[in-house]
Amino acid sequence: MFDKNNFDLGIRLGRDAEVEMAEKKAREEMCEQSFIKACGSEKFRNVEFSELGELQNVTAGKGDIATKTIIRNYIDDVAAGKMRFLWLCGNPGTGKTILSVAVIHELCRMGVSCAYFKSHKIMQRLRDAERFSSGINPKDVLSEIIAGKFRVIDEIGRWPVPEWESFRLFDIINDLYEYYKSAIFISNMWGKELAGFIGTAATDRFRGSGMILEFRGESYRGTKDELYVTNGGKNTHFPVKKDVV
Q: CA 36: distance to chain centroid?
């Protein structure tokens, strides 16, 4: 016997499923657009945090091996609105930028507004803004950097005038601290060298909310691991070499 109530229920459930699928697809597309806008690079488009293995070449604290759990907790804290600073430092080509981009991708998926900057380009913009004829206010440049919930500042230490970069970085770090914003900072300088570069006042703002991870080993650039993770492969391990400790 035909049951109209069950028939109508089936139609509603079918429509609900279609709506849910459409909303899921829209969220995924929005996430992808946010990620591309944040990173501005097609190279890392396929980098996923879930596809990275353990950070076998990375140490935290007093030489303890850093794990994905540390990064996972960092991501969850940022998404929950907590202020968290993370320094990624060490040898070139050892996965610092790839890891930071994977964090951005994950946070975009969680609805967090993200951005990616390179320090030397920030410094160039600030220098240009200080020229009276530029029509740009340095405060506007700094406001753009601290806008949004999360940002990555890469390539710290490459500006040809270290004292000037250090001075401006303090402004950025202090603003992030005062506005309770999170960030990842990346540099080829090691922990103690980096602390000396940014100065005592900036370092003090990391107490209780910051962590330094040191990346060791050789560069992966041009190796099959680096090409694999940036060309859409399902990476089942963080790109490390077997001889890296």
A: 12
Closest CA to 97 of 107, 106, 89: 89
> CA-CA distance, 59 to 100, in Å (whole number)?
16
Instruction: Give Dmax (Cα) for the chain.
Output: 84
Q: Classify the phi-psi angles of 63: left when phi > 0, otherwise alpha if psi is within -120 to 50, otherwise beta.
A: left
Helix, strand, coil content of the chain in percent (nearest 5): 50, 15, 35
Which residue from 165, 178, 185, 175 is spatially nearest to 117, judged by alpha carbons?
A: 185
Q: With both helix axes pointing from N to C terminus, report the angle between 4-39 and 96-109 in degrees, rounded to the nearest 10.
A: 150
Using DSSP's 3-state secondary structure scheme, residue 210 falls into strand
Which residues, at least 6 apart from 229, have a Cβ–Cβ distance to it below 8 Å? 46, 47, 51, 52, 98, 235, 239
Quote the pLDDT of residue 35: 60
How confident is the model at residue 240, as a pLDDT?
Answer: 38
Residues 190, 106, 101, CA angle at the centre, nearest 5°? 40
CB 83 within 8 A of CB 182: yes
For residue 66, give the DSSP letter.
P
- Give 234's DSSP letter: -
**pLDDT digit string (tens) for 69-80?**
889 999 999 999
Whose structure tokens read 């109508």? 8
Looking at the DSSP bridge assignments, the partners of residue 90 are 215
Cα–Cα nearest to 44, from 95, 94, 89: 95
Question: Residue 162 contacts by C-beta under 8 Å, 6 or more apart in sequence?
Answer: 197
Amino acid at 148: G
Amino acid 195: pLDDT = 83
What type of residue sits at position 213?
A: L
